[in-house]
Structures are given as structure tokens and as C-alpha cells.
Amino acid sequence: MKLPKFLNFFTKRSSSGVLNPQPWLTNLYGGTVTKAGERVNGSAALSSATVYACVNLISDTIGSLPWNVKQDSEVLYNTPLQRLISKRPNNLMHAVDFRRAMMTNVLLYGNAYALPTRRGNQLGSIEFIPPENVSINETTDGDILYTVQTEWGPNLTLTPEQIIHVKCFTLDGYTGVSPIAYAAETVGTDLAATNHLATFYGSGATPKGYIKLMGTIRDPERLKSIGSDFDAQYGANNSGKTAVLPEGGEYIPTSSSMADSQFIDSQKWTTEEICRIFKVPPHKVGRVEGISQNMSIESQNAQFVTDCIRPWVELLEMEFTDKLINNKEHYIEIEVDQLLRGDTNTQVQRDVSYWNIGVLNANEIREKMGLPPVDGGDEYMKPMHMSNENDINNGKEERPELE
Questions:
Q1: 101 or 50, which is more confident
Q2: Could you tell me the residue ranges of all domains in the chain?
Q3: Which of 69, 93, 123, 292 is the most exposed place for a label (fewest CB within 10 A)?
Q4: What is residue 248's three-state secondary structure?
């Protein structure tokens, strides 16, 4: 199938079902209405500071890692695919923006798509496709087809082998589940609390209440005027001024304070719940209260890599390798070693230990440090206690005896 220079523009219409709505349908109706009174969808969820921090952290981390095409642990620098995944997948995006866009969409909407295009037999580009422009349908024969909506012509109908599809966790095996849709109540509570705080300060941080007057005022307009005048003079823009009430008037607040409404506890709870949804340790988004002091920063970062980042890396490596590479000896690997590095002393101790037992040679250690190789640095150490039985020369050729 010959594809035009394309996929720069898409319409935002695709078929969808009630039980598994596409993102565009949810957005069309403003998202899910939560019990807290907030409408939540992928875009609205980013208004939550915790959601934004989690999504930004994960997408930035994945986006900044090196992606390489390898064979037998060697990077194939001169292949077209290596240039695409490491430099610029398409004309509109460089590699970091492409990866971040993929991760942001899969975290907010449960699915992210990309379309490999070819010029003859050569891979020409990897085009990012907004998830709202893709619908997934099952044929009567049980086959899965992807329909991509475009504005330049007819829709594209693709098989699973023709499109890169990164899913969040899935219930049916071929459509991803949006974490925001399933956690809408938690996100909605966080948004409602944020709006409540904004309203609180927007009112001058002064509890609303009523003015108690002595005597009787029968004119309704006069009563409204007293209240309006009070708000105008002592509201948000004039907070801190000395209030002067009508003769015999007494101001009685009725709203509870922020502490009474347990606002702080609510914010802590929603932060921890949203972090749990994205598998991000709370300390990575600034929530350090309650973190065990017995865990070092390196241990906490390692936990983030193993519990959150590593599963995404495995998924991305598998999907991109399967859809972009035909040679069974080649594969795509995302390097996570940089994230697992500890402090300098820990690195030195680890490298010396590996060098002593022959796991690494000197030049391999120098390469990790960005240093050039040295003569004799390719030899591996072999400790005496690890040599074969009765090998008094430790694996080296026996030296000739002196005459």
C-alpha cells in the first residue's frame, strides 16, 4: 500500500462504543462527571498537579533514555532505523518529542499509536498518530482492523502488523484501558479540592457568613444592598481592610476553615492515590512526608526504575522491535543503566568488584566513564581462587624455565 506524505492532519471523528469509548467521544461530552462535581478526561486531568507531575516524569524519563538498534549487544549505528529512533522519526518531531508524545497519550488515554511508512523497501519515517483518530474493530472472522481517520482522503484500514500500538493495561488484549477513566473519581476529587482552594483565596481567604442586624428591615432591596456593599468593600481585592458594619450589625461566619474541612489531609490522600495509579513513588513528585529515612536516594530511584519505568521499557522494546524489524538477529533496546547509577563511591566499588572477578575489563569500565581505551585494557582478570584445580599459572601459559 503506497502512502502519501501525510498524517500531518487528521479529523477527530472515529467510531466508538459506549462500553469502550474512544478519547474523542469522552472529550466531546466533556469527560466523565464525577461525584465531586468535576468533569474528568485526559486533557482535564492534566489540571491536577499530581497527574501532570506523574505523566511528565514518566514521559520525560522514557524520552531521555537512549534507544538503539542492536545485534549481539553491538549498536548498529549506520542503519536507517537507528537514525529514525535515535534522532528524528519524522519531519515534525525529533526523537525525544516523539517518545514523550507516545508516553503522554498512553498514560492519559490508555493507547498510543505510530505508523511506519516506507519508501520502496526502506523505512522512511515513523509517524505519530493521535489516539482520537484511531478506532479498533473486530471483523466477523475475528480479525482485528485499525481504522485511521484522515482529512486528505479515504480512511486507512490497517492490520495489527502495520501499526505500532502501545497499550496501558488491557482487558481484551488489543485495546488499552485509560487509567484516567478508571480513576476519574480520585482525579475529580483532586480537581475539586484545587478549585476549592482557588475559590477560598479568591474570596480573600475570608469565610463567608451573614450580617446580623438589630431591628427589622422590610425592604428586600435594602437587605441585598447591605450584603453587596459589604462584599464589594471587603472581598478579595480589598481583604485586610477594617470592616465597618451598619449600626447594630454583627458579622457571623458560617463556612468552616480549611483545617475544619480537612483540606490538607484530602490533598495528601489524592496525591498518594494518583501516584499509586501511575506507580510513581510520591517522593518523585515532591511528596516526601512519610518516606522511610532508612531508604537511600539511590534505593528510592531504583524502586522507581524497577516498578514503574522498567515495565514500560519492556513493552516499548517488544512492540517497536516486532513492528519495525524483520531481521530476527536485530532488536531494539532502551538503555536504562544510566537510571540505575548510584553515587560515585558506589559506582567505583561496584566496578572494582566486577574488574577483580573478571566480569569487566579496564577498557569497558573506561567506556562507561566516557574515557578512551588504553593498551592492555582489554584483558580480563582471573583471581587465583577462581582458576581451575592444579592450575598454578592461573590460566596463563607456563613460563619457560631459565637455563
A1: 101
A2: 1-204+256-342, 208-253, 344-386
A3: 292
A4: coil
